[in-house]
Write a structure and sequence with these properties.
Shape: globular
CATH class: Alpha Beta
Strand content: 15-25%
Number of helices: 5
Oligomer: single chain
Structural class: alpha/beta
CATH topology: Oxidized Rhodanese, domain 1
CATH superfamily: Rhodanese-like domain
């Protein structure tokens, strides 16, 4: 059965500066070896986030990533602005993470493309 996967084109590899379409292509392919991280505060995450994203606010990013992810894991980050996402990505790269991408436009671009978002009805509290 695995030979069938060879018949279909594989999605593009991680790009440091990714479009929402690049991420969606990987998700549609069913590629599980990636994590989507929303580095905005949890209140904003609760209001709307990319389906499948996890909330790790920027001030917790390095300590959480060091405990939770292998340094070669594909990590897709987004925030309010592309500049904030770039800062978060630079922090992770500086800590030794080699596969880090920013999602240009973040959740706003994701919504504009018509891709699914989630809303947290039982808010995740700030610790």
């Amino acid at each position: 059965m695995s030979f069938l996967f060879g018949l279909f084109p594989k999605p593009s590899p991680l790009r440091p500066d990714s479009r929402v379409y690049d991420l969606k292509e990987r998700l549609d392919w069913g590629e599980p070896a990636l994590t989507i991280i929303d580095v905005r505060d949890r209140t904003e995450f609760n209001q709307s986030h990319i389906t499948g994203a996890i909330s790790i606010p920027l001030d917790e990013l390095l300590s959480t990533a060091a405990k939770c992810f292998e340094v070669n894991r594909d990590l897709y980050l987004y925030s309010h602005t592309d500049d904030e996402s770039a800062v978060a990505a630079a922090q992770l790269r500086g800590a030794g993470f080699s596969q880090v991408a920013t999602v240009r436009g973040g959740v706003a671009a994701w919504k504009a493309a018509g891709f699914p978002v989630d809303v947290v009805t039982t808010p995740i509290a700030n610790p």
